[in-house]
């Protein structure tokens, strides 16, 4: 059988586009029901201590207020740590909302006011009085540098002799970089609508990146049978990692629903979006030693990240320094400092976004120290083998990224000296950086069903957080089944569908896409087997001459509609469910996506204000399933990198242990005017090892390296090497 | 209990036009236009991103001007002609901006999209956005965390002339 690629690789419009531009797409907090109750969360105002009392009398006296839940007034919940663990847990004791009187961080949910309307619930929440026994707290990473411990992460063992080689290197860089806490801040606040069913089961619309993760969590925490809990997420208004773990609005809404045996919605406020996971602040020391030609002899990357007192959050922060470039003497270390804060959480390109800032800024510093063009320095240190694993990359078209990106950007015209380019009052700087992200694959399942009308329905419990899952799975399914895209419906966001991993880590196309493809190929085989029995002209044709495309089976001169073939089958439909797993072919190889990003900034000489005017991002991510949606992923990643470089920092008043800028006016995310002209290039990269689609995923790679490239461009513009992110104008004056 | 608490308020009559349809409603004095649309009328296309006028997700058109529905009390809208995202398409025929947003993939998660589109409709009416830089500036009240800004600009640039041509044909407001 020939498998044609008719729509994979084409820039198809999103299949959910019309729903999204007409306001018909319904998100978690938007499911109405008569009598739906609204919950409003009361948050702690201290960072550490105990709740002495919660006075709810006044709140309960408000007409229309139904109940107030707190640790002393709630349904039974599990007391075992394991029951609160989930598919993205950190090591330790997961947070248990409304479990007891302990206050672990400022902003912790302490009570839920449930009322007939949103306004009443919010108002009554303001009447709840909490008395505390306050204890001293620590929230400042810089003040606990003597209270750190090794991160429970599998950091690669040292190789070679870093100390000796670094000491003798002709060129050395030793620099420390600081990155800030950042909050995901998807535009849609976290929300859960729990629809209480007549039989006591729960149908829940939740903002999540894993419907089955949430279902499993609720099953364990509330000791509910899984079949009584269905978690749905048809549309997710962005997440970027914030939906990888069940967030507290979910168990709170379920508590209220179980307690009252009614339907309840809990939507967090924007302020409360700063009361759970975030990208952790880091302090990273990078030491690079090179020979006079810039060839790396020694790399050490020592990182410290903040975590909570109850969990040790780890991310891949330092690994990149041992795998992006060729170097035989590498030492990586990673420590954590616990604070009276919530546990950090994976956030778009977790670890890489922060860790690559240090590596790629240090590489720029090395280029300056060795008087070598930064791009040329990277070319000289290209690694075909991942030194951490001692395995060759299945594919790594990073050199093509360098070449094509540089050409498009005009890198050859760069004057090497800082402050050597200007445009009127603006100092112009050109900087670049490389990027890398793992190309992972997880087990995933999918079901495919074709009916007598020729309609193909493919389903999996995965989600679409804006990445384009609905669309790319439709494309993959259409090609694999030989159907027309308009005859394909992809169903997702439902815990009752075939098992899918969390949507994260850029592995959805690779994992779910492989399952979709396999299911549709198996379905095609079933259709073919039936056709060969039922239609003599198909039965006689040699199999290799039979093709499936555009909803038809073609066997020599005979053309049959898939709809007719299926309609002629005894059951009138065919259905297949498969589980796809990573192939053993991957084992001897390292797999990763790469990018090279080139940035132009203009820095106002008098004001220190920075504007990113131009970006070229060249990406090697294997086969691109949909160039339109993939490009959007990279564009978004670049914007995130600009935010990381220039704008984003969650600021804490350490005296109060409380976040200061917990709103979108003071926590700055890039706006349209902050975005310059961004070009995206997907370089040709063939890879039949990484997975059967040859596609590596693009959700994370777009952000990796961008902040470093911006910082390097700022250095080139100003001659100032700012190592504390974000690079706000005060640091440039 | 203070006089402005939800315990003491009474619902007020409100008459307005929403997406061409005359409505007579009873609203409490503290209810925002945003909560009225979303919670009472199930017009959930208008989004709540911050409830503080900081993100633009709740942008709607009030008498042709873009406003943040979260900062507008419903009772202030008596007699207003309101257009939300649900009112832009004519049946199955999408508004030029809606079509352009799809063509240019000017959204990812879609949550800021209704606000972006309503904002751009308002922008066209204002008639000030003559350059790409000006559009960028004047669309900066609408945050997009997915970072679709490049594509939003492309979509708005494509749709603006179409909208102006249409407005001129209909003898509509200067744009």
From TrEMBL, chain A:
Residues 22-136 form the Aldehyde oxidase/xanthine dehydrogenase a/b hammerhead domain. It holds the Pfam family MoCoBD_1. InterPro entries: Ald_Oxase/Xan_DH_a/b, Ald_Oxase/Xan_DH_a/b_sf, Ald_Oxase/xanthine_DH-like, AldOxase/xan_DH_MoCoBD1, AldOxase/xan_DH_MoCoBD2, AldOxase/xan_DH_Mopterin-bd_sf. SUPFAM superfamilies: CO dehydrogenase molybdoprotein N-domain-like, Molybdenum cofactor-binding domain. It comes from the Bacteria. SMART domains: Ald_Xan_dh_C. This is Xanthine dehydrogenase family protein molybdopterin-binding subunit. It comes from Pseudomonas capeferrum.
């Amino acid at each position: 059988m020939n498998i044609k690629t008719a729509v994979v690789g084409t820039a198809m419009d999103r299949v959910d586009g019309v729903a999204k531009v007409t306001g018909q797409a319904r998100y978690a907090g938007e499911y109405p029901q008569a009598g739906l109750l609204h919950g409003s969360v009361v948050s702690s105002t201290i960072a550490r201590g105990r709740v002495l009392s919660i006075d709810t009398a006044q709140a309960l006296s408000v007409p229309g207020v139904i109940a107030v839940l707190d640790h002393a007034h709630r349904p039974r919940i599990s007391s075992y740590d394991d029951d609160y663990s989930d598919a993205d847990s950190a090591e330790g004791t997961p947070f248990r909302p409304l479990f007891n009187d302990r206050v672990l961080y400022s902003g912790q949910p302490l009570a839920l006011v449930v009322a007939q309307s949103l306004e009443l619930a919010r108002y009554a929440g303001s009447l709840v009085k909490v008395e505390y026994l306050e204890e001293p707290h620590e929230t400042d990473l810089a003040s606990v540098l003597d209270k750190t411990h090794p991160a429970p992460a599998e950091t690669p063992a040292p190789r070679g002799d870093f100390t000796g080689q670094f000491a003798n290197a002709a060129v050395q860089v030793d620099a420390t970089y600081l990155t800030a806490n950042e909050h995901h801040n998807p535009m849609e606040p976290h929300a859960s609508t729990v629809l209480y069913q007549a039989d006591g089961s729960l149908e829940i619309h939740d903002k999540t990146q894993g419907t089955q993760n949430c279902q499993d969590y609720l099953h364990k925490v509330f000791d509910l049978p899984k079949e009584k809990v269905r978690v749905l997420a048809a549309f997710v208004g962005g997440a970027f990692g914030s939906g990888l773990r069940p967030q507290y609005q979910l168990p709170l809404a379920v508590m209220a629903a179980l307690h009252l045996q009614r339907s309840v919605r809990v939507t967090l406020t924007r302020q409360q979006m700063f009361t759970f996971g975030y990208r952790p602040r880091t302090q990273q020391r990078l030491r690079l030693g090179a020979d006079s030609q810039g060839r790396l002899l020694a790399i050490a990357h020592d990182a410290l990240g903040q975590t909570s007192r109850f969990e040790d959050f780890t991310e891949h922060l330092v690994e990149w320094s041992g795998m992006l470039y060729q170097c035989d003497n590498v030492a990586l270390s990673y420590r954590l400092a616990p604070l009276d804060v919530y546990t950090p959480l994976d956030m778009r390109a977790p670890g890489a976004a922060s860790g690559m800032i240090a590596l790629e800024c240090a590489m720029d510093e090395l280029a300056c120290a060795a008087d070598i063009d930064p791009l040329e320095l990277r070319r000289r240190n290209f690694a075909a083998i991942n030194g951490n694993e001692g395995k060759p990359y299945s594919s790594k078209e990073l050199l093509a990224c360098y070449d094509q990106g540089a050409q498009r950007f005009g890198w050859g015209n760069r004057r090497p000296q800082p402050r050597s380019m200007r445009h009127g009052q603006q100092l112009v700087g050109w900087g670049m950086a490389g990027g890398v992200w793992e190309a992972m694959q997880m087990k995933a399942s999918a079901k495919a069903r074709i009916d007598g009308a020729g309609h193909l329905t493919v389903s999996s419990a995965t989600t679409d957080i804006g990445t384009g899952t609905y669309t790319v799975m439709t494309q993959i399914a259409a090609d694999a089944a030989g159907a027309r895209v308009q005859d394909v419906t992809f169903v997702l966001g439902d815990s009752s569908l075939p098992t899918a991993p969390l949507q994260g880590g850029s592995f959805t196309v690779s994992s779910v896409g492989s399952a979709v493809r396999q299911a549709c190929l198996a379905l095609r085989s079933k259709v073919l087997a039936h056709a060969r029995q039922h239609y003599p002209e198909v039965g006689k044709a040699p199999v290799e001459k039979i093709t499936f495309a555009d909803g038809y089976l073609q066997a020599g001169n005979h053309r049959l509609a898939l709809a007719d073939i299926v309609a002629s089958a005894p059951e009138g439909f065919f259905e297949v469910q498969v589980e796809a797993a990573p192939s053993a072919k991957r084992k001897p190889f390292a797999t990763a996506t790469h990018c090279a990003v080139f940035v132009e900034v203009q820095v106002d000489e008098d004001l220190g204000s920075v504007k990113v005017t131009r970006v070229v991002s060249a990406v090697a991510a294997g086969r691109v399933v949909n160039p339109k949606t993939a490009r959007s992923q990279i564009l978004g990643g670049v914007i995130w990198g600009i935010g990381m470089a220039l704008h984003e920092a969650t600021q804490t008043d350490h005296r109060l242990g409380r976040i200061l800028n917990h709103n979108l006016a003071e926590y700055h995310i890039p706006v349209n005017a902050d975005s310059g002209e961004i070009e995206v290039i997907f370089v040709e990269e063939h890879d039949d090892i990484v997975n059967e689609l040859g596609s590596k995923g693009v959700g994370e790679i777009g952000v990796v390296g961008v902040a470093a490239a911006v910082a390097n461009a700022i250095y080139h513009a100003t001659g100032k090497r700012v190592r504390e992110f974000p690079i706000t104008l005060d640091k440039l004056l | 209990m203070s006089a402005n608490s939800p315990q003491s308020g009474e619902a007020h009559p409100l008459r307005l036009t929403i997406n061409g349809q005359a409505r007579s409603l009873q609203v409490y004095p503290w209810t925002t236009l945003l909560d009225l649309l979303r919670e009472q009328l199930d017009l959930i296309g208008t989004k709540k991103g911050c409830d503080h006028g900081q993100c633009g997700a709740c942008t709607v058109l009030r008498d042709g001007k873009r406003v943040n529905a979260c900062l507008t009390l419903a009772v202030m809208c008596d007699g207003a002609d309101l257009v939300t995202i649900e009112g832009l398409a004519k049946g199955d025929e999408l508004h030029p901006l809606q079509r352009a947003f799809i063509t240019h993939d000017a959204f990812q998660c879609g949550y800021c999209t209704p606000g972006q589109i309503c904002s751009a409709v308002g922008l066209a009416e204002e008639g000030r956005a003559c350059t790409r830089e000006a559009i960028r500036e004047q669309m900066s009240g609408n945050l997009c965390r997915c970072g679709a800004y490049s594509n939003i600009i492309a979509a708005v640039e494509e749709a603006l002339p179409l909208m102006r041509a249409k407005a001129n044909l209909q003898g509509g407001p200067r744009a």
